[in-house]
Amino acid sequence: MTVDRREFLEKLLLGTGLLWLSPANLLAQDPCAVQHPLMPPNPALKGQCHNCGMTRPMWARTWFTYENAAGAHEVCSLHCLAEVTLMSGEDPKRVMVALYQDPDKMIPVEAAYFVIGSKAKGTMTMTSKPAFASRADAAAFAAQCGGTVAQFPEALAVAQKSVAAENQKIAQNRKRKGKIVEPVADQDRCPVCGMYPARYPQHKSQLQTRDKTIYHFCSTQCLFTFLKQPKDHVEASVMPFLIWVVDFEGGQWIYAKSAYYVVGSKQYGPMGKEAIPFRSRSSAESFAAQHGGKVLPYGQVNHDAIIA
Ligand SMILES: [Zn+2]
Ligand SMILES: [Zn+2]
């Protein structure tokens, strides 16, 4: 059947309401219009990006898992993988990537082929880099949807080059979408100590629950005190979803779980002893060399470690 004839038949069927415009049918029409993010989200796919907090049920098509010295991790995208490798200074091991067209499946990146810069929608980037299981699959996609075929090292290098520029846009989007909310001066109070977090721009932090309740803290000390036992401070039951701290070096909001913290330094904050957050491990290490203390990843920071 010619394309014209198929289009004519589809229009005819649409007119009669016989053609159900399911995502599968749209996919059959246009291989480039892959539905991304998944809508509705697929709850069978579990996981949260440890670099930005986005969830696998929605962003499964661009999902990665990897290991490093601190353990096994997952990230929503090549953008987030590129960022964590730059910020940790560590090459990721045993990296697996989801197939863009079959997001339940993950394969080792050494076996994957990426299409850089096609019409396909990416995650955290304007230049998508979807993964395919073979060079032939990637080439077929690129032939129809544009872009160039590359293997993992090249795709990662392209992503690393764009991290800084993409982060500026991402920061604006997070504010616009209410994923990060600035504490209101003389209004929002720290639920642990009662002080006003807006007065402590270098040390403030915040926690958002799944139902979008936001708690603003004056400091990381109060944040981790709260996390130890939220019900000591608020009546509601708290399921932390997104947690943000401020990079002590750049002054930007950063995702708490991918930050490096200097604990036990001479740098005091609103509550005295603090975990001082940094985006990059090397910045945290040079701060600790100057001001004392040790560098800990998020998973090792807690109330007791901070006040010790
Ligand atoms: Zn992410
Ligand atoms: Zn406080």
What does this structure look like?
The protein has 308 residues and is α+β, with helices and mostly antiparallel strands. The chain has two domains: 44-175, no CATH class; 197-307, no CATH class. It has helices at 3-16, 23-29, 56-59, 78-88, 135-145, 152-176, 220-228, 281-291, 303-307, and strands at residues 64-68, 71-75, 93-99, 102-108, 113-116, 131-132, 148-150, 205-209, 214-217, 240-246, 253-255, 260-269, 272-278, 294-297. β8 and β9 form a beta hairpin. α4 crosses α6. The chain is elongated. Residues 1-22 have low confidence and may be disordered.
- Class computed from helices, strands and strand pairing: alpha+beta
Assembly form of the protein: single chain
How much helix, percentage-wise, in residues? 25-40%
Distance linking N and C termini: 75 Å
Give the overall shape, derived from the CA principal axes: elongated
> Total domains, how many?
2
Q: Count the DSSP helices.
A: 9
Number of strands: 14
- If you average the pLDDT, what whole number results? 92
